[in-house]
Every structure is written in structure tokens, then in C-alpha cells.
Amino acid sequence: RNMSSAGPEGRKKMRECEGLIDSLVYYIQGAIADHEPNDKATENCVCILHNLSYQLEIELPESYAQSIYMQRRNISNNDKTPGCFGTRSRKVKEKQQDTPLPEEKSNPKGVESLWHSTLIRIYLSLIAKSTRNYTQEASLGALQNLTAGTGPMPFAVARTVVQKASGLPSIRAMLHVSHPAVKKTAVSLLRNLSRNTSLQNDIAREVLPDLVSILPECVPGCEVACETTASICYTLFNLTQSSSHNARLLLSAHGLPKVIAISMNDSNMFSKASRAASVLLYSLWSHTDLHSAYKK
């Protein structure tokens, strides 16, 4: 577990170690089958897999990168326009939806297991069944890592989580736990998932009211809570940017007063949350059919 967090070279060597990833997955499967999701060794195994999934899209061996990602390389830089969230334009998003997803092997080995639907379902099972905060956080964090990129693999993982494995209820439950790091990681995962336009309506229907309910009444006073608040606002931005219906959902969940209050904080120390809330407000105002409701 310590070695797996030693940096990119360590991660690469461990991914290449024959049988290591397969053994970790095998052990976790056994623990779940034996109804022992709170086993300490299971926590260690999940934390190792979490670390080995970090930067996976960037660090994949060349053979995988060529077969899975060459079509992504063809997206011209001219397709991208600067915005509040880096250089992801509508064209890039549309292209992402059109990109063929990598085919899944029925019997994955080694590094292939890290993004396979079998392991995704294992993470979701641990999120639902384990009461160990580190196991929950590592399972959420592994899914966050796997959905962080813009290529076919992160999109395929996101679709598996939301549609094929019906993982949103388990993730939604983590929004209401008392452990701040678990909550923060759950929100960060939802932020990644919400970037996929084809999944946004499913996500909004399942978790938008919950996201609004955990928004604080003003900018929180600690850094972790502040980062979580910013991530919630950016997730709501993704869900409402292109959907007047989802913006109305936010309104009916009484989210607008909270977002306004957060946006009005002028403290430099916690400006990340207020800036995110301001961007969300600006986006919400673009739905002209809701102006009268907003003014009320």
C-alpha cells in the first residue's frame, strides 16, 4: 500500500508485476463473497488499486494507448475554446460521445482489470456494504481516477457506473456520511460523471436534490468543506448548463438562495467555493425561460 503511492515509476512497475493486480482483485472478491467487506486486508487491497488507477489514462503502456486512444489524438486543438473549466468545448464533448468505446475482455488480466466492469462493480459493492471510511473513500477514489480523463476508457467507466451497474444510489448515500473526506470524494466522482452529456439527465434525476441538500448556507470555514462546496457547484453547473429542466429541478429544491449566499463571500481564503457558485449563477441565468421564477 505504501509502495503504490510512491510515484509514477512505482505505479508502472506494480502494474507490470505479473499476477499482482489479479491477486488483489481475487482477494477482494473473496472478502465480499464471505460477507467481510470491513476486513483490514480488503481495505489495503482497495487502497493499492486506488493508487494504481491514478493517472491511468496518461500512464497506460504504449500498446494500450495506441489501440484505445489513437482516435482521441485526432481531435484538433482548434476544436477547443477557452472557458471556465479548461478547454472542453461543445465540439469536444460531442466528439467524446461519438468515439467508439474500448471492447471489454471477458477474462481480463493485469492492468486490463483496472478499468474492467467486474472491478467497477466490486468498488460499488464495497461502497454499499463496507462501513470502513478508508475502504469507502478508496473505492470512490478509484472510480474518480478512472473517470477523470476525456478518452473512451473514462467515458466507458462512467457509463458502466451510471447505467450498467446502477451505481448512483450507492454514491448518493455517501453524500450524507459524516466523514468529510468520503463526502468530498463522492462529490468529486459525481463531478467527473456529470461531464458526460449522455448521462446528465440520469444523474440529475437521481442525485441533484441530494447535492442541493448538502450545500451549506454559506461558504464553510474549513478547506475540505470549501473544496467539496466548489465541487458541488461545478457538478450542478454541468447538470444544468444545457438543461432548463435540470435548472428548474435546482430551483424547486431551494438551491438558489444557497448558491447566491455562497457566491457573495469575498474572503480570499475560501474564494474557490464563491467563484464556483458565481459561475453556476451565471450559467443558470442563461435559461431565459426561468428568469421570472428566479426573480421571485
From TrEMBL:
Identify the main location: other
Identify the SUPFAM superfamilies for this entry: ARM repeat
Q: What's one GO BP annotation on this UniProt entry?
A: protein localization to plasma membrane
Annotated compartments: Cell junction
Q: Which domain of life is it from?
A: Eukaryota
A cellular-component GO term for this protein: plasma membrane
Q: Supply the InterPro entries for this chain.
A: ARM-like, ARM-type_fold, Armadillo, Plakophilin/d_Catenin
Q: Which Gene3D superfamilies match?
A: Leucine-rich Repeat Variant
In residue numbers, the region (Disordered) covers: 79-109
Q: So what family is this one in? A: Belongs to the beta-catenin family.
In Swiss-Prot or TrEMBL terms, this protein is called PKP2 protein
Q: Which organism is it from?
A: Aegithalos caudatus (Long-tailed tit)
- What is the taxonomic lineage of the source species? Eukaryota, Metazoa, Chordata, Craniata, Vertebrata
